[in-house]
Design a protein that fits this description.
Blueprint (H helix, E strand, L loop, with lengths): L2 H39 L4 H4 L4 H29 L1 H18 L6 H15 L2 H10 L4 H12 L1 H17 L9 H23 L12 H21 L5 H4 L3 H29 L1 H5 L5 H9 L2 H18 L3 H14 L9 H22 L9 H33 L3 H23 L24
């Protein structure tokens, strides 16, 4: 056992976890808040002021993903070419400026256009962030690092929903309706943090001033060795062949189910909570609705962290992804028959925990067989196809609600897609096209067998 190398590894991974991941997670926090701000604005004045039906609101929520999808792969390839520091900062400032324009949206047509342009502006950020973090740590540490990053998503709602409620309550500030104040308030941080990112991020460990020379040498060497081994065992997987790779398309379908559930909840949970008044006779003010919206996501953050910690310890197994998808798929339709606001939120909490437990572990799979530009294209393609669900979940949920008069059919559709993700993950594993992860404690930096816990 090389004790010195063990200390260097431990120190390097800890520094990445402390210095890099929280900032990228903050970027993701702002990203997710900006794209889902419409879900808070809708039931709190925007739908009434712009005379939106449920289907129109759903289309406005989902049209974001059309622009997002069109530029996803090109944007991630550009990140690979120009470097993450410049490209992620550029993306963030761009979407911040577009988000700011929602403050003055005047009709449904303008809302559609701005949501589409917002998707274009944000294209490439999430898969770029995933790729960026994957390029900083060896595979055995990736599940933990991605879990810390992914914590930003449920925490966006835990913190963001009450924050949105507080901003909406500032009705009359600058002469604006409350929901317009909220759009203004969540857009400004994107521009500020995007500018900071240009100076704060580094494109690779070799360029990180906050790593010692020993840490740079170890990280660069470990990542280069891993890259060569992955490339040698997957010589046929290039950017060109990514689009014909069965594993990539299967993972895209699995991710579709997770994202369908994620955004069906994200876009319509505030509306469902607003509907408690008509169903159960309850009355909540805007801040209370925001706090209730946040409830499922705090346990989801804990589930994400501890489930991913187990995956890091054991190595990511098929059941780390398939089991949460199964539980989520079975639980979401049960919310329709809960019988009270508290019971409904309890069931939705189980669904949210399931989705967030699976997602960071899912993203460790593509880099098992993709490297370099192929990894950039493959991750972007998976995210692109998966995010078709972002459009589908918003529009189809709203359309089915208008068609059937309730959320029964839409929620069964959500459950069905998540169950399909579970089935496909098991099928992919049994086909032998993905491998079970190696636990962190089974490896040292040279693969010789000691545990280096960051």
């Amino acid at each position: 056992m090389d004790t010195t190398q063990s200390v260097v590894e431990k120190s390097a991974i800890r520094k990445v976890a402390i210095r890099l991941v929280p900032f990228v997670a903050l970027m993701f926090f702002i990203n997710y808040l900006d794209r889902t701000a419409i879900s808070f604005a809708g039931p709190n004045g925007m739908n009434a002021d712009l005379a939106l039906s449920a289907a129109q609101f759903g289309f406005a929520s989902g049209v974001f993903f059309i622009g997002y999808i069109l530029l996803e792969v090109p944007s991630n390839l550009a990140l690979h070419k120009f470097g993450a520091r410049r490209w992620l900062a550029r993306i963030m400032v761009s979407w911040g400026i577009v988000s700011l324009l929602f403050t003055w949206v005047g009709n449904v047509e303008q809302l559609y256009v701005l949501r589409f342009i917002l998707g274009v502006a944000e294209a490439g950020f999430f898969p770029g962030a995933i790729l960026f973090l994957s390029l900083w740590v060896p595979a055995r540490h990736r599940s933990k690092i991605l879990a810390l990053f992914y914590l930003a998503q449920p925490l966006t709602t835990v913190i963001g929903a009450p924050l949105a409620g507080l901003l909406i309550q500032q009705h009359g500030l600058f002469g604006l309706e409350g929901w317009r104040v909220m759009f203004f308030g969540v857009a400004i941080p994107a521009i500020i943090v995007g500018i900071i990112a240009w100076f704060y991020l580094a494109d690779s460990p070799a360029k990180a001033k906050w790593l010692s020379q020993e840490e740079k040498t170890w990280l660069t060497g470990a990542l280069e060795k891993e890259k060569k081994e992955t490339a040698a065992s997957n010589k046929h997987v290039s950017v060109r062949t990514v689009f014909g790779n069965g594993r990539v398309w299967m993972l895209s379908a699995i991710y579709f189910g997770f994202i369908y559930g994620l955004y069906a909840l994200g876009f319509f949970l505030p509306t469902i909570i607003a509907g408690f008044e008509g169903i159960y006779g309850t009355k909540f003010d805007v801040l209370q609705k925001g706090l209730i919206t946040a409830i499922p996501y705090l346990p989801a953050a804990f589930a994400l962290y501890f489930w991913s910690k187990d995956a890091t310890k054991r190595g990511v197994k098929t059941w780390h992804i398939a089991l949460p998808a199964l539980i989520g798929g079975l639980s979401i339709p049960l919310a329709l028959f809960a019988g009270s606001p508290a019971a409904t939120i309890a069931v939705i909490t189980i669904t949210a925990m399931s989705i967030f437990a699976a997602l960071p572990n899912f993203w460790t799979v593509p880099t098992q067989f993709l490297t370099g530009a192929a990894a950039a294209a493959g991750i972007a393609l998976i995210n692109t196809i998966g995010n078709l669900a972002g459009f589908s979940a918003g529009y189809v949920t709203g359309w089915l609600k208008d068609l059937t008069g309730g959320y029964t059919v839409p929620m069964f559709v959500v459950g069905g897609f998540m169950l399909l993700s579970s089935i496909l993950m098991v099928a992919l594993s049994r086909s032998g096209k993905v491998s079970e992860g190696v636990p962190a404690e089974a490896l040292d930096p040279a693969g010789a067998g000691h545990h280096a816990e960051p």
